[in-house]
Amino acid sequence: MVEIQILEKSDDFMRFIVSGVNVPFVNALRRIMLTEVPAMAIDEIVVLENSSILNDEILAHRIGFIPLKTDLDSYSLPEECKCESEFGCNLCRSNLTLEAEAVDKITTVYSGDMKPENPDIVPVSDKIPIVKLASDQRIKMEAYARLGKGKKHAKWQPVSMCNYMYLPKIKVDVDSCDACGKCVKVCPEECLIKTDSGIKTQNELECTLCMDCVDACPKEPLAVEVTWDKNAFIFKIESTGALPVERIVVEAIKILDKKVKEFSDQLKKGK
Ligand SMILES: [Zn+2]
To answer: 26 CA to middle of ligand 1, Å?
Structure first.
């Protein structure tokens, strides 16, 4: 049975233990979160004026990577939209405009200077610098944000970190351990501690399976053993801010579910 134990959770970050699953399953989830859960990003810009030091392409590239708040319920992917138009409609595109000028001193243009058509589709942070303008330099542009998937371009990835590792287990053999403390000193995560009654383990979840403690143990056979559970994983997910992290996981599960259903439908058809 699959069991989940949440260790940390906020809108942008989640860390949990999932047990009762295997590597193919957690890796499928991870890859779907990275490449298939849609997010909003600026896909096209029309430059009306640009006398800044950065050329149009560099500006477009920088603006494309600004994470945008995403509304998956109101917008559809351009390829799935009813409008079937390459240009897009209100259901598959949201516009933002950017107009800035430096009058008599150097001015930094930030993501927060972009004016959105829909107040829900805005940069997740308004402090991302886009370009510095010197006196009398101007930029004026219109940007089109669309939903997309990370498999097409990394700017559409809703996660900035998405990884998992085996659940570590550290064991100290009290019979052969003479509490020399060498393992305690080398552990970068302080997972071992020297007490009056010998070496004990602590914050085991922080163990990165580096095996330094095992290498440092002078005993034969080794007094410290590090293993991992093959069916339990610590998952860490950080959102770019585009979507709440829980929503990203739920969407990934929906996509995986749809894939499995499609597979089974096709299999039945082929009978
Ligand atoms: Zn449309």
So the answer is: 34
